[in-house]
Amino acid sequence: MNSAFEAKEKEKTSRPTGTVARLVRKYALQIAIVFAAILLWVLFLIGSPRTFLSYPIYGSFMSTTPYFALMAIPLTLVIIAGEIDLSFGSIMAFGMTAFSVVFIRTNNLTLGFVACLLAGLFAGLLNGAIVVKVGIPSLVTTLGTQFFWRGVVLVVTAGNGVGLQVAQRTILAQALVGRLAGRIPAQMLWTIAVAVVVWFFLNRHKFGAHVYLVGDNVESARLMGVNVERTKMLTFALVGLAAAFAGFVMSLQLLYFWPTLGEGFLMNTLASVFLGGTSVFGGTGTIFGTFVASFIIGAINAGIVAAGLTGFWTQLIYGLIIIVSVSVQAVLRRKLA
Amino acid sequence: MDYVVRMVNVSKTFGEVEALRHVDFEVGTNEIVGLVGDNGAGKSTLVKIMTGYHQPDPGGEFYWKGKKVQHMSVAEARRLGIEVVYQERALADLQELWRNIFMGRELSNRLGVLDIKRMRRETGNLMTTVMGFTSAAVTPDTAVKTMSGGERQGVAITRALYFNAELIILDEPTMGLSISETRKCLAFVEGIKSAGKSCVFIDHNIFHIHPVADRIVVLDRGAVAGQFSKDQITLDGLLAKLSRVAQTGSLNNETSRNKL
To answer: Can you tell me the ipTM of this complex?
Structure first.
Protein backbone atom coordinates (compact mmCIF):
# COMPACT_ATOMS: atom_id res chain seq x y z
CA MET A 1 0.00 0.00 0.00
CA ASN A 2 2.93 2.25 0.71
CA SER A 3 4.04 1.97 -2.86
CA ALA A 4 1.26 4.33 -3.80
CA PHE A 5 2.31 7.93 -4.27
CA GLU A 6 5.94 6.95 -4.42
CA ALA A 7 8.81 9.31 -4.68
CA LYS A 8 8.30 11.07 -7.94
CA GLU A 9 7.88 14.61 -6.80
CA LYS A 10 10.41 16.89 -8.36
CA GLU A 11 12.32 19.48 -6.39
CA LYS A 12 10.45 22.69 -6.75
CA THR A 13 12.94 25.49 -6.93
CA SER A 14 10.34 28.14 -6.22
CA ARG A 15 10.13 26.98 -2.63
CA PRO A 16 12.70 28.41 -0.26
CA THR A 17 14.75 25.59 1.17
CA GLY A 18 16.96 27.17 3.83
CA THR A 19 15.76 27.15 7.41
CA VAL A 20 16.34 30.88 7.76
CA ALA A 21 14.49 31.65 4.54
CA ARG A 22 11.61 29.50 5.69
CA LEU A 23 11.42 31.17 9.07
CA VAL A 24 11.57 34.62 7.49
CA ARG A 25 8.81 33.65 5.11
CA LYS A 26 6.71 32.13 7.86
CA TYR A 27 7.02 35.14 10.16
CA ALA A 28 7.22 37.76 7.41
CA LEU A 29 4.16 39.66 8.63
CA GLN A 30 5.29 39.67 12.24
CA ILE A 31 8.75 40.89 11.27
CA ALA A 32 7.20 43.57 9.07
CA ILE A 33 4.94 44.83 11.84
CA VAL A 34 7.82 45.05 14.32
CA PHE A 35 9.86 47.02 11.81
CA ALA A 36 6.88 49.30 11.17
CA ALA A 37 6.60 49.92 14.91
CA ILE A 38 10.31 50.69 15.24
CA LEU A 39 10.22 52.97 12.21
CA LEU A 40 7.28 54.89 13.63
CA TRP A 41 9.02 55.19 16.98
CA VAL A 42 12.20 56.55 15.37
CA LEU A 43 10.10 59.07 13.42
CA PHE A 44 8.47 60.23 16.64
CA LEU A 45 11.85 60.40 18.37
CA ILE A 46 13.17 62.64 15.63
CA GLY A 47 9.95 64.63 15.49
CA SER A 48 9.66 65.45 19.17
CA PRO A 49 12.62 64.02 21.08
CA ARG A 50 11.64 65.70 24.33
CA THR A 51 8.29 63.96 24.50
CA PHE A 52 9.49 60.58 23.38
CA LEU A 53 12.61 60.45 25.52
CA SER A 54 10.68 60.78 28.76
CA TYR A 55 8.42 58.31 30.51
CA PRO A 56 4.99 60.00 30.66
CA ILE A 57 4.11 59.40 27.00
CA TYR A 58 4.78 55.67 27.43
CA GLY A 59 2.77 55.60 30.64
CA SER A 60 -0.04 57.19 28.71
CA PHE A 61 0.20 54.59 25.91
CA MET A 62 0.12 51.76 28.42
CA SER A 63 -2.88 53.29 30.10
CA THR A 64 -5.12 53.95 27.08
CA THR A 65 -4.09 51.40 24.45
CA PRO A 66 -5.38 48.46 26.54
CA TYR A 67 -8.95 49.79 26.22
CA PHE A 68 -9.09 48.61 22.62
CA ALA A 69 -6.18 46.16 22.59
CA LEU A 70 -8.13 44.03 25.07
CA MET A 71 -10.87 43.72 22.44
CA ALA A 72 -8.64 43.56 19.37
CA ILE A 73 -6.94 40.42 20.70
CA PRO A 74 -10.07 38.21 20.82
CA LEU A 75 -11.50 40.01 17.78
CA THR A 76 -8.53 38.56 15.90
CA LEU A 77 -10.06 35.11 16.45
CA VAL A 78 -13.43 36.18 15.04
CA ILE A 79 -11.76 37.52 11.92
CA ILE A 80 -9.50 34.48 11.51
CA ALA A 81 -12.70 32.41 11.67
CA GLY A 82 -13.93 34.39 8.67
CA GLU A 83 -16.43 36.53 10.53
CA ILE A 84 -16.56 40.12 11.74
CA ASP A 85 -17.86 41.87 14.85
CA LEU A 86 -18.87 45.53 14.90
CA SER A 87 -20.83 45.46 18.14
CA PHE A 88 -18.07 45.38 20.76
CA GLY A 89 -18.14 49.14 21.37
CA SER A 90 -21.79 48.97 22.39
CA ILE A 91 -21.14 45.82 24.42
CA MET A 92 -18.58 47.79 26.47
CA ALA A 93 -21.37 50.13 27.50
CA PHE A 94 -23.93 47.34 27.88
CA GLY A 95 -21.65 45.52 30.31
CA MET A 96 -21.26 48.69 32.34
CA THR A 97 -25.02 49.20 32.29
CA ALA A 98 -25.48 45.76 33.80
CA PHE A 99 -22.81 46.70 36.32
CA SER A 100 -24.61 49.94 37.20
CA VAL A 101 -27.95 48.24 37.69
CA VAL A 102 -26.44 45.70 40.09
CA PHE A 103 -24.04 48.11 41.77
CA ILE A 104 -26.68 50.73 42.53
CA ARG A 105 -28.94 48.11 44.11
CA THR A 106 -26.37 46.10 46.04
CA ASN A 107 -23.51 48.57 46.44
CA ASN A 108 -21.27 45.57 45.82
CA LEU A 109 -18.50 46.32 43.35
CA THR A 110 -17.49 42.69 42.80
CA LEU A 111 -21.06 41.62 42.17
CA GLY A 112 -21.37 44.46 39.66
CA PHE A 113 -18.15 43.36 37.98
CA VAL A 114 -19.49 39.80 37.61
CA ALA A 115 -22.76 41.16 36.19
CA CYS A 116 -20.76 43.24 33.72
CA LEU A 117 -18.79 40.22 32.49
CA LEU A 118 -21.89 38.03 32.28
CA ALA A 119 -23.71 40.69 30.26
CA GLY A 120 -20.78 40.89 27.84
CA LEU A 121 -20.62 37.13 27.55
CA PHE A 122 -24.35 37.00 26.88
CA ALA A 123 -24.18 39.71 24.22
CA GLY A 124 -21.30 37.87 22.53
CA LEU A 125 -23.14 34.55 22.61
CA LEU A 126 -26.20 36.23 21.16
CA ASN A 127 -24.10 37.54 18.25
CA GLY A 128 -22.77 34.03 17.72
CA ALA A 129 -26.22 32.46 17.93
CA ILE A 130 -27.68 34.83 15.36
CA VAL A 131 -24.79 34.23 12.98
CA VAL A 132 -24.61 30.47 13.45
CA LYS A 133 -28.15 29.34 14.18
CA VAL A 134 -30.19 31.90 12.26
CA GLY A 135 -27.61 32.19 9.51
CA ILE A 136 -27.35 35.95 9.20
CA PRO A 137 -23.99 37.29 7.94
CA SER A 138 -22.00 38.55 10.91
CA LEU A 139 -21.55 41.99 9.33
CA VAL A 140 -25.31 42.56 9.39
CA THR A 141 -25.87 40.78 12.70
CA THR A 142 -23.34 42.80 14.63
CA LEU A 143 -24.33 46.03 12.91
CA GLY A 144 -27.79 45.36 14.26
CA THR A 145 -26.69 44.36 17.76
CA GLN A 146 -24.37 47.36 17.84
CA PHE A 147 -27.38 49.66 17.61
CA PHE A 148 -29.54 47.42 19.75
CA TRP A 149 -27.19 47.30 22.74
CA ARG A 150 -26.46 51.00 22.51
CA GLY A 151 -30.21 51.52 22.55
CA VAL A 152 -30.59 49.31 25.61
CA VAL A 153 -27.87 51.31 27.35
CA LEU A 154 -29.53 54.61 26.59
CA VAL A 155 -32.99 53.39 27.61
CA VAL A 156 -31.80 51.87 30.91
CA THR A 157 -29.52 54.74 31.91
CA ALA A 158 -31.82 57.39 30.43
CA GLY A 159 -28.61 58.85 29.10
CA ASN A 160 -27.20 59.50 32.58
CA GLY A 161 -23.70 58.50 33.60
CA VAL A 162 -22.69 56.85 36.86
CA GLY A 163 -19.90 58.14 39.05
CA LEU A 164 -17.49 55.53 40.36
CA GLN A 165 -15.41 57.54 42.81
CA VAL A 166 -16.34 55.14 45.60
CA ALA A 167 -14.51 52.38 43.75
CA GLN A 168 -11.25 54.26 43.65
CA ARG A 169 -9.59 52.75 46.70
CA THR A 170 -10.93 49.22 46.34
CA ILE A 171 -8.74 46.19 45.75
CA LEU A 172 -10.52 45.50 42.47
CA ALA A 173 -9.66 48.97 41.16
CA GLN A 174 -6.07 48.56 42.31
CA ALA A 175 -5.86 45.19 40.60
CA LEU A 176 -7.34 46.39 37.30
CA VAL A 177 -6.18 49.97 36.89
CA GLY A 178 -3.63 50.51 39.68
CA ARG A 179 -0.02 51.38 38.99
CA LEU A 180 2.65 48.75 39.42
CA ALA A 181 5.70 50.29 41.08
CA GLY A 182 3.86 53.56 40.79
CA ARG A 183 4.42 53.62 37.03
CA ILE A 184 3.13 50.68 34.99
CA PRO A 185 -0.65 50.73 34.56
CA ALA A 186 -2.19 47.45 35.67
CA GLN A 187 -4.38 47.34 32.55
CA MET A 188 -1.18 46.96 30.53
CA LEU A 189 -0.33 43.81 32.46
CA TRP A 190 -3.86 42.52 31.97
CA THR A 191 -3.56 43.13 28.25
CA ILE A 192 -0.33 41.15 28.14
CA ALA A 193 -1.98 38.37 30.16
CA VAL A 194 -4.99 38.28 27.83
CA ALA A 195 -2.69 38.24 24.81
CA VAL A 196 -0.71 35.31 26.22
CA VAL A 197 -3.84 33.33 27.14
CA VAL A 198 -5.55 33.94 23.80
CA TRP A 199 -2.30 33.18 21.97
CA PHE A 200 -2.12 29.88 23.84
CA PHE A 201 -5.67 28.92 22.92
CA LEU A 202 -5.21 29.97 19.31
CA ASN A 203 -1.90 28.20 18.76
CA ARG A 204 -1.68 25.41 21.26
CA HIS A 205 -5.26 24.28 21.71
CA LYS A 206 -7.82 22.41 19.62
CA PHE A 207 -10.13 25.39 19.76
CA GLY A 208 -7.58 27.61 18.00
CA ALA A 209 -6.76 24.92 15.45
CA HIS A 210 -10.46 24.81 14.61
CA VAL A 211 -10.66 28.61 14.40
CA TYR A 212 -8.01 28.55 11.66
CA LEU A 213 -9.65 25.64 9.82
CA VAL A 214 -13.13 27.18 9.93
CA GLY A 215 -11.83 30.47 8.56
CA ASP A 216 -9.70 28.84 5.90
CA ASN A 217 -12.26 26.47 4.42
CA VAL A 218 -15.48 26.06 6.32
CA GLU A 219 -16.73 23.24 4.08
CA SER A 220 -13.56 21.19 4.54
CA ALA A 221 -13.68 21.76 8.27
CA ARG A 222 -17.26 20.55 8.40
CA LEU A 223 -16.52 17.48 6.27
CA MET A 224 -13.65 16.59 8.56
CA GLY A 225 -15.85 16.75 11.63
CA VAL A 226 -14.94 20.16 13.05
CA ASN A 227 -17.80 21.64 15.04
CA VAL A 228 -18.07 24.83 13.02
CA GLU A 229 -21.03 26.23 14.94
CA ARG A 230 -19.50 25.84 18.37
CA THR A 231 -16.17 27.26 17.23
CA LYS A 232 -17.74 30.41 15.80
CA MET A 233 -20.03 30.89 18.80
CA LEU A 234 -17.05 30.75 21.13
CA THR A 235 -15.10 33.37 19.22
CA PHE A 236 -18.03 35.80 19.39
CA ALA A 237 -18.54 35.01 23.07
CA LEU A 238 -14.89 35.84 23.79
CA VAL A 239 -15.17 39.23 22.10
CA GLY A 240 -18.31 40.01 24.12
CA LEU A 241 -16.59 39.02 27.35
CA ALA A 242 -13.48 41.02 26.49
CA ALA A 243 -15.53 44.08 25.51
CA ALA A 244 -17.32 44.09 28.85
CA PHE A 245 -13.99 43.70 30.63
CA ALA A 246 -12.44 46.55 28.61
CA GLY A 247 -15.45 48.74 29.35
CA PHE A 248 -15.10 48.03 33.04
CA VAL A 249 -11.38 48.77 33.04
CA MET A 250 -11.87 52.03 31.18
CA SER A 251 -14.74 53.19 33.40
CA LEU A 252 -12.74 52.33 36.50
CA GLN A 253 -9.75 54.28 35.18
CA LEU A 254 -11.92 57.32 34.43
CA LEU A 255 -13.99 56.72 37.60
CA TYR A 256 -17.08 57.45 35.57
CA PHE A 257 -19.33 55.43 33.31
CA TRP A 258 -20.53 57.39 30.33
CA PRO A 259 -23.41 55.86 28.37
CA THR A 260 -21.44 56.75 25.25
CA LEU A 261 -18.61 54.44 26.42
CA GLY A 262 -17.11 52.53 23.51
CA GLU A 263 -18.15 54.94 20.78
CA GLY A 264 -15.13 55.66 18.66
CA PHE A 265 -13.46 52.32 19.43
CA LEU A 266 -14.73 50.59 16.30
CA MET A 267 -12.13 52.01 13.94
CA ASN A 268 -9.00 51.68 16.02
CA THR A 269 -9.86 48.16 17.18
CA LEU A 270 -10.51 46.92 13.66
CA ALA A 271 -7.45 48.80 12.41
CA SER A 272 -5.32 47.01 15.03
CA VAL A 273 -6.45 43.60 13.84
CA PHE A 274 -6.02 44.31 10.12
CA LEU A 275 -2.75 46.19 10.49
CA GLY A 276 -1.54 43.24 12.55
CA GLY A 277 -1.74 41.06 9.46
CA THR A 278 -4.96 39.17 10.11
CA SER A 279 -6.59 38.41 6.80
CA VAL A 280 -10.04 39.83 6.18
CA PHE A 281 -10.69 36.62 4.19
CA GLY A 282 -10.10 34.45 7.25
CA GLY A 283 -7.72 31.57 7.85
CA THR A 284 -4.63 33.55 8.83
CA GLY A 285 -3.67 35.98 11.54
CA THR A 286 -1.63 36.24 14.70
CA ILE A 287 -2.13 37.57 18.21
CA PHE A 288 1.40 38.93 18.17
CA GLY A 289 0.60 41.03 15.11
CA THR A 290 -2.57 42.43 16.67
CA PHE A 291 -0.78 43.19 19.92
CA VAL A 292 2.02 45.18 18.28
CA ALA A 293 -0.39 46.85 15.86
CA SER A 294 -2.58 48.02 18.76
CA PHE A 295 0.32 50.02 20.10
CA ILE A 296 1.11 51.40 16.67
CA ILE A 297 -2.50 52.55 16.39
CA GLY A 298 -2.34 54.01 19.89
CA ALA A 299 0.90 55.78 19.06
CA ILE A 300 -0.45 57.19 15.82
CA ASN A 301 -3.11 59.03 17.76
CA ALA A 302 -0.46 60.59 19.98
CA GLY A 303 1.72 61.21 16.96
CA ILE A 304 -1.02 63.09 15.16
CA VAL A 305 -1.36 65.43 18.09
CA ALA A 306 2.42 65.72 18.55
CA ALA A 307 2.79 66.50 14.86
CA GLY A 308 0.50 69.45 15.33
CA LEU A 309 -2.39 68.03 13.31
CA THR A 310 -5.89 68.29 14.68
CA GLY A 311 -7.77 65.31 16.07
CA PHE A 312 -9.88 65.40 12.92
CA TRP A 313 -7.05 63.58 11.19
CA THR A 314 -7.31 60.44 13.32
CA GLN A 315 -10.41 59.08 11.59
CA LEU A 316 -8.88 59.68 8.20
CA ILE A 317 -5.67 57.91 9.14
CA TYR A 318 -7.37 54.91 10.80
CA GLY A 319 -9.61 54.51 7.79
CA LEU A 320 -6.59 54.67 5.53
CA ILE A 321 -4.76 52.05 7.62
CA ILE A 322 -7.69 49.65 7.38
CA ILE A 323 -8.04 50.07 3.62
CA VAL A 324 -4.32 49.83 2.93
CA SER A 325 -3.69 46.82 5.16
CA VAL A 326 -6.60 44.75 3.83
CA SER A 327 -5.65 45.69 0.25
CA VAL A 328 -2.04 44.65 0.81
CA GLN A 329 -3.28 41.32 2.16
CA ALA A 330 -5.57 40.82 -0.82
CA VAL A 331 -2.72 41.47 -3.26
CA LEU A 332 -0.35 39.18 -1.33
CA ARG A 333 -2.97 36.46 -1.30
CA ARG A 334 -3.45 36.59 -5.06
CA LYS A 335 0.30 36.54 -5.60
CA LEU A 336 0.79 33.49 -3.40
CA ALA A 337 -2.18 31.59 -4.82
CA MET B 1 -21.13 -12.53 2.20
CA ASP B 2 -20.42 -10.34 5.22
CA TYR B 3 -21.17 -6.69 4.75
CA VAL B 4 -19.31 -3.84 6.40
CA VAL B 5 -21.99 -1.41 5.34
CA ARG B 6 -25.56 -2.09 4.39
CA MET B 7 -27.98 0.70 3.61
CA VAL B 8 -31.64 -0.14 3.18
CA ASN B 9 -34.31 2.00 1.59
CA VAL B 10 -32.30 5.19 1.86
CA SER B 11 -33.83 8.34 0.43
CA LYS B 12 -32.63 11.91 0.63
CA THR B 13 -34.54 14.97 -0.41
CA PHE B 14 -33.26 18.53 -0.42
CA GLY B 15 -36.39 20.63 -0.50
CA GLU B 16 -38.04 19.67 -3.79
CA VAL B 17 -35.09 17.73 -5.11
CA GLU B 18 -35.01 13.97 -4.60
CA ALA B 19 -31.29 13.29 -4.61
CA LEU B 20 -31.76 9.61 -3.64
CA ARG B 21 -34.87 7.44 -4.00
CA HIS B 22 -35.17 4.19 -2.00
CA VAL B 23 -31.60 3.12 -2.50
CA ASP B 24 -30.31 -0.22 -1.21
CA PHE B 25 -26.56 -0.28 -1.14
CA GLU B 26 -24.02 -2.52 0.49
CA VAL B 27 -20.28 -2.99 0.66
CA GLY B 28 -18.89 -6.43 1.44
CA THR B 29 -15.93 -7.14 3.67
CA ASN B 30 -12.76 -6.64 1.64
CA GLU B 31 -14.77 -5.68 -1.39
CA ILE B 32 -14.04 -2.86 -3.80
CA VAL B 33 -17.31 -1.38 -4.99
CA GLY B 34 -17.22 0.92 -7.99
CA LEU B 35 -19.96 3.51 -8.00
CA VAL B 36 -20.71 5.08 -11.35
CA GLY B 37 -23.33 7.44 -12.61
CA ASP B 38 -23.77 10.72 -14.37
CA ASN B 39 -23.56 14.13 -12.72
CA GLY B 40 -26.48 14.48 -10.34
CA ALA B 41 -27.06 10.73 -10.10
CA GLY B 42 -26.67 10.96 -6.32
CA LYS B 43 -23.19 9.50 -5.87
CA SER B 44 -21.90 12.23 -3.61
CA THR B 45 -25.11 12.33 -1.60
CA LEU B 46 -24.88 8.59 -1.01
CA VAL B 47 -21.30 9.04 0.15
CA LYS B 48 -22.17 11.89 2.47
CA ILE B 49 -24.85 9.75 4.11
CA MET B 50 -22.31 6.98 4.64
CA THR B 51 -19.99 9.47 6.32
CA GLY B 52 -22.66 10.94 8.54
CA TYR B 53 -22.51 14.36 6.90
CA HIS B 54 -26.10 14.11 5.65
CA GLN B 55 -28.88 12.36 7.53
CA PRO B 56 -31.07 10.09 5.39
CA ASP B 57 -34.80 10.79 5.24
CA PRO B 58 -36.85 8.86 7.83
CA GLY B 59 -37.32 5.22 6.86
CA GLY B 60 -33.77 4.69 5.67
CA GLU B 61 -31.64 2.23 7.63
CA PHE B 62 -27.92 2.02 8.07
CA TYR B 63 -26.10 -1.10 9.26
CA TRP B 64 -22.43 -1.32 10.15
CA LYS B 65 -21.18 -4.93 10.26
CA GLY B 66 -24.75 -6.10 10.73
CA LYS B 67 -25.56 -3.73 13.57
CA LYS B 68 -28.04 -0.96 13.05
CA VAL B 69 -26.64 2.53 13.57
CA GLN B 70 -29.24 4.93 14.88
CA HIS B 71 -27.57 8.28 14.76
CA MET B 72 -24.92 8.72 12.16
CA SER B 73 -22.64 11.71 12.42
CA VAL B 74 -19.22 12.52 11.08
CA ALA B 75 -17.74 11.63 14.46
CA GLU B 76 -19.69 8.35 14.65
CA ALA B 77 -18.67 7.34 11.13
CA ARG B 78 -15.05 7.93 12.02
CA ARG B 79 -15.37 5.97 15.21
CA LEU B 80 -16.72 3.06 13.18
CA GLY B 81 -13.77 3.30 10.79
CA ILE B 82 -15.22 4.99 7.73
CA GLU B 83 -12.82 7.38 6.04
CA VAL B 84 -13.41 9.51 2.99
CA VAL B 85 -11.25 11.15 0.41
CA TYR B 86 -13.55 13.85 -0.87
CA GLN B 87 -13.82 15.09 -4.40
CA GLU B 88 -12.88 18.55 -3.24
CA ARG B 89 -10.09 16.97 -1.12
CA ALA B 90 -11.40 18.78 1.97
CA LEU B 91 -8.14 20.55 2.63
CA ALA B 92 -7.54 23.92 4.26
CA ASP B 93 -5.20 25.57 1.78
CA LEU B 94 -3.58 28.20 3.95
CA GLN B 95 -2.77 25.81 6.77
CA GLU B 96 0.32 23.71 7.27
CA LEU B 97 0.45 20.13 6.10
CA TRP B 98 0.31 18.74 9.65
CA ARG B 99 -2.82 20.72 10.44
CA ASN B 100 -4.46 19.24 7.35
CA ILE B 101 -3.49 15.68 8.18
CA PHE B 102 -4.98 15.99 11.65
CA MET B 103 -7.90 18.22 10.69
CA GLY B 104 -10.84 17.69 13.01
CA ARG B 105 -9.04 15.20 15.27
CA GLU B 106 -5.94 16.92 16.41
CA LEU B 107 -3.78 14.94 18.80
CA SER B 108 -4.19 16.55 22.17
CA ASN B 109 -4.28 15.82 25.86
CA ARG B 110 -7.49 15.60 27.86
CA LEU B 111 -7.67 19.37 28.22
CA GLY B 112 -7.46 19.86 24.47
CA VAL B 113 -3.89 21.13 24.50
CA LEU B 114 -2.34 20.18 21.18
CA ASP B 115 0.57 17.79 20.91
CA ILE B 116 2.12 19.72 18.03
CA LYS B 117 5.49 18.01 18.27
CA ARG B 118 3.94 14.60 17.80
CA MET B 119 1.63 15.73 14.97
CA ARG B 120 4.55 17.19 13.07
CA ARG B 121 6.67 14.11 13.66
CA GLU B 122 3.88 11.79 12.53
CA THR B 123 3.31 13.97 9.47
CA GLY B 124 7.01 13.79 8.68
CA ASN B 125 6.90 10.00 8.93
CA LEU B 126 3.81 9.76 6.75
CA MET B 127 5.42 11.99 4.16
CA THR B 128 8.34 9.68 3.63
CA THR B 129 6.62 6.33 4.14
CA VAL B 130 3.20 6.83 2.58
CA MET B 131 3.10 10.00 0.55
CA GLY B 132 6.54 9.55 -0.90
CA PHE B 133 7.50 13.19 -0.64
CA THR B 134 11.25 13.29 -0.98
CA SER B 135 11.62 16.93 -1.84
CA ALA B 136 13.31 18.81 0.97
CA ALA B 137 11.13 21.77 0.09
CA VAL B 138 8.00 20.11 1.46
CA THR B 139 7.99 19.89 5.23
CA PRO B 140 5.20 19.28 7.73
CA ASP B 141 5.03 23.09 7.97
CA THR B 142 4.47 23.67 4.26
CA ALA B 143 1.15 25.29 3.42
CA VAL B 144 -1.01 22.96 1.34
CA LYS B 145 -1.79 25.57 -1.30
CA THR B 146 1.75 25.42 -2.65
CA MET B 147 1.38 21.72 -3.55
CA SER B 148 0.44 20.15 -6.88
CA GLY B 149 -2.87 18.36 -7.48
CA GLY B 150 -1.23 14.97 -7.04
CA GLU B 151 0.48 15.99 -3.83
CA ARG B 152 -2.79 17.31 -2.47
CA GLN B 153 -4.52 14.06 -3.35
CA GLY B 154 -1.69 12.26 -1.57
CA VAL B 155 -2.38 14.32 1.55
CA ALA B 156 -6.10 13.55 1.46
CA ILE B 157 -5.51 9.81 0.95
CA THR B 158 -2.79 9.60 3.57
CA ARG B 159 -5.07 11.28 6.04
CA ALA B 160 -7.75 8.66 5.42
CA LEU B 161 -5.21 5.91 5.81
CA TYR B 162 -3.53 7.15 8.95
CA PHE B 163 -6.55 6.65 11.14
CA ASN B 164 -6.87 2.90 10.45
CA ALA B 165 -9.99 2.95 8.35
CA GLU B 166 -11.99 -0.22 7.70
CA LEU B 167 -13.86 1.32 4.81
CA ILE B 168 -12.27 3.92 2.60
CA ILE B 169 -14.46 5.95 0.30
CA LEU B 170 -12.82 7.67 -2.64
CA ASP B 171 -15.02 10.33 -4.19
CA GLU B 172 -13.77 10.99 -7.73
CA PRO B 173 -10.15 10.66 -6.66
CA THR B 174 -8.77 10.87 -10.18
CA MET B 175 -10.37 14.19 -10.96
CA GLY B 176 -7.78 16.72 -12.00
CA LEU B 177 -4.90 14.27 -11.78
CA SER B 178 -2.30 13.64 -14.46
CA ILE B 179 -2.09 10.18 -16.05
CA SER B 180 0.80 9.07 -13.86
CA GLU B 181 -0.90 10.42 -10.76
CA THR B 182 -4.08 8.57 -11.73
CA ARG B 183 -2.08 5.36 -12.06
CA LYS B 184 -0.73 5.83 -8.55
CA CYS B 185 -4.23 6.40 -7.30
CA LEU B 186 -5.50 3.17 -8.87
CA ALA B 187 -2.54 1.31 -7.39
CA PHE B 188 -3.62 2.71 -4.05
CA VAL B 189 -7.10 1.19 -4.48
CA GLU B 190 -5.51 -2.18 -5.15
CA GLY B 191 -3.46 -1.60 -2.03
CA ILE B 192 -6.66 -1.24 0.00
CA LYS B 193 -7.84 -4.61 -1.34
CA SER B 194 -4.64 -6.42 -0.47
CA ALA B 195 -4.64 -4.85 2.99
CA GLY B 196 -7.96 -6.61 3.61
CA LYS B 197 -10.01 -3.45 3.81
CA SER B 198 -13.08 -2.34 1.92
CA CYS B 199 -13.48 0.51 -0.50
CA VAL B 200 -16.11 2.47 -2.35
CA PHE B 201 -14.59 3.99 -5.44
CA ILE B 202 -16.56 6.67 -7.22
CA ASP B 203 -15.56 7.88 -10.61
CA HIS B 204 -16.97 9.22 -13.83
CA ASN B 205 -14.54 7.17 -15.76
CA ILE B 206 -15.44 3.53 -16.31
CA PHE B 207 -11.94 2.87 -17.54
CA HIS B 208 -10.64 3.69 -14.08
CA ILE B 209 -13.27 1.74 -12.20
CA HIS B 210 -13.59 -1.47 -14.19
CA PRO B 211 -10.03 -2.73 -13.66
CA VAL B 212 -10.01 -2.33 -9.88
CA ALA B 213 -13.61 -2.88 -8.75
CA ASP B 214 -15.06 -6.23 -7.64
CA ARG B 215 -18.59 -5.04 -8.19
CA ILE B 216 -19.95 -2.04 -10.04
CA VAL B 217 -23.11 -0.23 -8.99
CA VAL B 218 -24.78 2.11 -11.44
CA LEU B 219 -26.72 5.03 -10.02
CA ASP B 220 -29.07 6.98 -12.21
CA ARG B 221 -31.24 9.91 -11.20
CA GLY B 222 -31.15 9.02 -7.53
CA ALA B 223 -31.85 5.30 -7.84
CA VAL B 224 -29.80 2.16 -8.34
CA ALA B 225 -30.17 1.33 -12.02
CA GLY B 226 -28.31 -1.94 -11.72
CA GLN B 227 -25.24 -3.69 -10.45
CA PHE B 228 -22.75 -6.18 -11.86
CA SER B 229 -19.99 -8.37 -10.57
CA LYS B 230 -16.94 -7.69 -12.61
CA ASP B 231 -16.89 -11.25 -13.90
CA GLN B 232 -20.45 -10.81 -15.13
CA ILE B 233 -19.72 -8.01 -17.49
CA THR B 234 -17.01 -6.85 -19.83
CA LEU B 235 -15.88 -3.29 -20.13
CA ASP B 236 -17.58 -3.00 -23.52
CA GLY B 237 -20.82 -4.45 -22.18
CA LEU B 238 -20.79 -2.00 -19.30
CA LEU B 239 -20.17 0.92 -21.62
CA ALA B 240 -23.09 -0.08 -23.79
CA LYS B 241 -25.35 -0.34 -20.77
CA LEU B 242 -24.28 3.01 -19.42
CA SER B 243 -25.01 4.82 -22.64
CA ARG B 244 -28.42 3.12 -22.70
CA VAL B 245 -29.09 4.37 -19.15
CA ALA B 246 -28.12 7.86 -20.16
CA GLN B 247 -30.65 7.80 -23.00
CA THR B 248 -33.54 5.79 -21.65
CA GLY B 249 -33.10 5.67 -17.89
CA SER B 250 -33.12 1.86 -18.01
CA LEU B 251 -30.16 -0.50 -18.18
CA ASN B 252 -31.74 -3.04 -20.45
CA ASN B 253 -33.78 -3.23 -23.62
CA GLU B 254 -37.36 -4.15 -22.86
CA THR B 255 -36.76 -7.49 -24.56
CA SER B 256 -33.67 -8.54 -22.66
CA ARG B 257 -33.87 -10.28 -19.32
CA ASN B 258 -32.67 -8.45 -16.22
CA LYS B 259 -29.39 -9.98 -15.22
CA LEU B 260 -29.83 -9.60 -11.50
So the answer is: 0.82
